[in-house]
Amino acid sequence: MAKYKLWVVAAAAVLLLAGCTSLQGSSNSASSTKTTKKLQTTGKVTDSMYEGVIDNNQYKTSQTRGLTTQQSNTAFDVKSLESGLLKISKQQFPTDKYLYQEGQTIKTAEAQKWLARQSKDNPLGLNPEDNGQKEPDKRNPLYLQQILEQDFLGSDGALDGMSIGLGMNQIDYYTKEQYGATFETKISSAMMAQQGKQIANKVLSRLRQKKGMDETTIAIGLYKQAPKDSLVGGTFFAYGISKNGSTTIDSWHELDQANQVFPLVNNEKAVNQSDVDAFNSFKEQVQTFFPNLSGVTAQAHYEDGVLAGMNITVNTQFYSETEIMSFTQYIATAANKYLPQNIPLDISISSAEGMQAYVGRATGSKGFSTHVFGSY
Which Gene3D superfamilies match (predicted)? Predict the structure, then answer.
């Protein structure tokens, strides 16, 4: 009888522990997945990342990512819109409280109609109708270039939050005839902001009419597209939050962001000359020590005039793995000595054969991590 009671107590304890297992209590392995009765997720490596949602053992891809008007985007703009919107999202939807899902509410065909011009055949167009003019200062330009949706779910799988990124043109590229020369209509910052906020409220109103969206918190960010020949992406210049079913954003948060490429070209004015000098010292030191380089360039990101991060690309002609190993170690030493401190840094070392090594420093870290990509 005593053994029977002991068995019952042990079984009850096991059931209690099983019942207390939560979504956050599962393994954080990047390669593992986690399952509850309602959700399956990817797991996550760090607290700064969202867990992604898996549906029927498959990851849902975005309905809107990469969609643009007829003019093409740079790859930098597509990535910068996505990463910048994610940063805004994290302020509203913390990674420890929400799960991430690629945008599913705005369907691909719907987004394509929204990005097009308004017309009799397309009353949903968010860009102004064609007024028939061809001259840059007389025609109606395309203000909206791309749209991106990010979804945020609670642990029960309900859509609790959404972020929308609207890519706005500062230059609208067009042709007067098919396959003809390309012309430009420049759009002032004031007009870009005005049009962006008007379009944002139209998008918000349409989202509120969708099933289950009447109370969802929605963040909308306005993004300035980079010129098409830029070697760096654009930046966000404002965002607004809609809560409790509101159909307009009355209060906007202005953002002061800038991206710049080093070395500077065409007599461009530096956002911060000391950052340029630091990069030039790093570049000179690296090229002196290892002269067999094709080039060293950097993308610098600024927020409120302060350097917030830097991505550096080093193109080499090395083929020996031992050369790459030595070079990678030297890069880390030179970066620690010459480049600005207390910012995240990513340094990619590549050749025509592909990426050869990586040197990086995470936010808040003092040291660099390195990795050389070998072969078997």
Answer: sex pheromone staph- cam373 precursor domain
